[in-house]
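Bench notes, afternoon.
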Amino acid sequence: MRKHLSIGLAAILLASLVMTACGGGAASGYKVGMVTDMGGIDDKSFNALGWKGIEDGIKELGIEGSYLESQQQTDYATNITQYVNQETDLIVTVGYMLADDTASFAAANPDVNFAIVDFSYAPPIDNVRGLTFATDQASFMAGYIAAAVTKTGKVACFGGINIPSVAIFMVGYEAGVKYYNEKHGTNVEVLGWDTAANNGVFVGNFESTDDGRRTGEEFLAEGADVIMAVAGPVGQGTAEAVQAAGNAWFIGVDADWTVTASKYSDIILTSVLKNIDVAVLDTIKSASASGFAGFGGESYVGTLANNGVGLADVASGAISNDIEDELEDVRQGIIDGTIDSGWETYLSNL
């Protein structure tokens, strides 16, 4: 059964240090540790992308890098404590759910640098860099594409947990569909999210592929032929349902799913890219060189303009040349501010 506005979390067992790697270079000896959220390091999503940024730092800069997996919420503080005790230079926490623990440890350890994915603090904290992403911009484009390819007139999206870093995708997606409707005189319906009502479908976790499959099957039964899942590994279950149906498309998020989940390539329409790895590597470079001098407390914001967010290639033949041209116009309109991708307006109306 689909859960609406659920805030439940799946709990598993215990956290463990899985990998440490190091190399030579100018930043040799600089230690970076990453604390994952509960999707796991191989979630093919935001945790995996965060770790890729550290791996790139290992290769390019010669830093020492490791991660600790969080399998339940109580692991967050335990894992951060372990890194503080190890005198880690930069601790990267992945996800909105780690915001409170990150702030507490940053305040208690002002000589340790922190970065957090999908959160920024107001007022800012001097030794924390927030890594945030305007994913509504890229999701807007994905919604526009979904509206262009649907044959049933119904497209869908859903989230893992109802938090801002998830909802922002859904707001942008719906806004893109509505913009397509305005431009083309169509009436494509979005299932799973209603910005005006501030109401949507959330399965309550980022782990259960069974939940993803069930939710996908429900949307397909309601007539949706394009589904976007903003739910980490949960989306793999949805992709399975779409693939089994044989007459629908799936939109991935965070990474390019034709690469990270290639067995679903035949049904992947596109993916909304959140380039967490780029943001993490940028932070490592700055922190290892200058100890956050110059941007302490400031946030990184990934946008279409700076390639912090974007779209993966659209499936071959799925859209016409005219729609491709329109997409470039949409992209430029979002960048120059003449098209509202939705999130700031949504927040202002709450």
